[in-house]
Amino acid sequence: MPKAMGTAIVVGASSGIGKAIAEQLVAGGWKVGLTSRKLENLAETIARLGEGAAAKAIDLDDPEGARSGLAAFADELGGVDLWILNAGTGILNRDFAWEPERQTIATNVMGFAAMTDVAVHHCIARGEGRIVGISSVAKKRGHPFTASYSGSKAFVSLYLDGVRQYLRRKAPKVSVTEVAPGYIDTPLQQFDEAFWVVSAETAARQIIAAAMARRKHAYVPKRWALVAALLSLAPR
Ligand SMILES: NC(=O)c1ccc[n+]([C@@H]2O[C@H](COP(=O)([O-])OP(=O)(O)OC[C@H]3O[C@@H](n4cnc5c(N)ncnc54)[C@H](OP(=O)(O)O)[C@@H]3O)[C@@H](O)[C@H]2O)c1
C-alpha cells in the first residue's frame, strides 16, 4: 500500500454521506476503514476503492460489541488520525409507536456514545487526532413525527461539546467537529417538504473541509446556520 495522507475510520460508510466521505478520502490519498452492520453492504465499495480501503462489520445497537470491534479495527489499521462518527438512523413515526422511538434512541444516542468512547480514548493514547460527529439541523427543534430523532441529535451536539472541553485539558491537539447537515439526498431523507437538498457528495466535501480546518461546528451547507437561528425563535 502506498504511503497514505493519514488513516481514517468512517462509521456508517455503506450509504449516503458516510459512503461519499469514504470515497473522497480514498481519492485524496487516505487509508480508510469503512463500517456497516453487514459486510455485504460494503462489498461493492471496497472492491471499487481497492487497496486504500478496508471493511469491518460494526453494529451500534450492540454498544459493547461496537466498542471492542471499533478499537480492534483501529489497531488493525495501524492507528487512526481521523474519526468520522456518522452512522445514524431516522424513522418517520406518524403514530408515535414505541419501536421506532426505541430504535432511534438506541442507535443515535447509546450507539453514538459508544463510538465516541473509542475515538476519544484512541486519540488520548496517541495525543493527536480529529473527531467528527454528525448531528443535524434537527437538533434545534422537535418535530411531531421525529421526536426521538431531534432529541437524539440534540444529545449528539451537546455530548460533543462536553467531549471537546474534556479533550482540551486531556489532549489539546485533538479536535472535535460537530457537523449539522440540512437536507441531504440519501435513503435516510424522507421528508416530502425537504428544501435546499444537496447531494451526499457535496455534503461530504464540506464535512471533510471542516475536519481539515479543525472547525468546532459546521452547518452543511453553510446557509443552514440561518435556518437554525430562525428555528430557535419561530413559534411552535
Ligand atoms: N440525509 C439527511 O438529510 C441528513 C440530515 C442531517 C443529518 N444526517 C445524519 O447523517 C448521518 C448519515 O446519514 P445518511 O443520510 O447518509 O443516511 P444513510 O444513507 O441511511 O446511511 C446511514 C449509515 O449508517 C449506518 N447505520 C445505520 N444504523 C446503524 C447501526 N445500528 N449500526 C451501525 N451502522 C448503522 C448504515 O449502515 P448499514 O445500514 O449498512 O448498517 C449507513 O452506512 C446520520 O447520522 C444522519 O442522522 C442526515
Order of strands, widest sheet: 3-2-1-4-5-6-9
Q: In the CATH hierarchy, what is the class? A: Alpha Beta
Fourth-level CATH superfamily: NAD(P)-binding Rossmann-like Domain
Assigned CATH architecture: 3-Layer(aba) Sandwich
Give Rg in angstroms.
17 Å
Stretches with pLDDT under 50, minimum 5 residues: none
Taking the sheet with the most strands, its summary is: 7 strands, parallel
Structural class call reads alpha/beta
Number of domains: 1
Q: Give the integer mean of the pLDDT values.
A: 96
- Termini separation comes to 55 Å
Overall morphology? globular
Quick rundown:
46% of the residues lie in helices and 18% in strands.
Keywords:
236 residues; alpha/beta; Rossmann fold; seven-stranded parallel sheet; two-stranded parallel ribbon; 7 helices; 46% helix; 18% strand; binds NADP nicotinamide-adenine-dinucleotide phosphate
Question: What report would you give on this structure?
Answer:
The protein has 236 residues and is of the alpha/beta class. The protein has one domain: Rossmann fold. Helix content is 46%, strand content 18%. It is built from seven helices and nine strands; from the N terminus they run E-H-E-H-E-H-E-H-E-H-E-E-E-H-E-H. It has helices spanning 16-27, 43-49, 63-76, 98-126, 147-170, 200-212, 224-233, and strands at residues 7-11, 31-36, 53-57, 82-85, 129-134, 174-181, 184-185, 198-199, 217-220. A seven-stranded parallel sheet has the order 3-2-1-4-5-6-9, with helices on both faces. Helix 1 (16-27) links the parallel strand 1 (7-11) and strand 2 (31-36). Helix 1 (16-27) crosses helix 6 (200-212) and helix 3 (63-76) runs parallel beside helix 4. The chain starts with 6 loop residues before the first strand and ends with a helix. The mean pLDDT is 96. The chain binds NADP nicotinamide-adenine-dinucleotide phosphate (NAP).
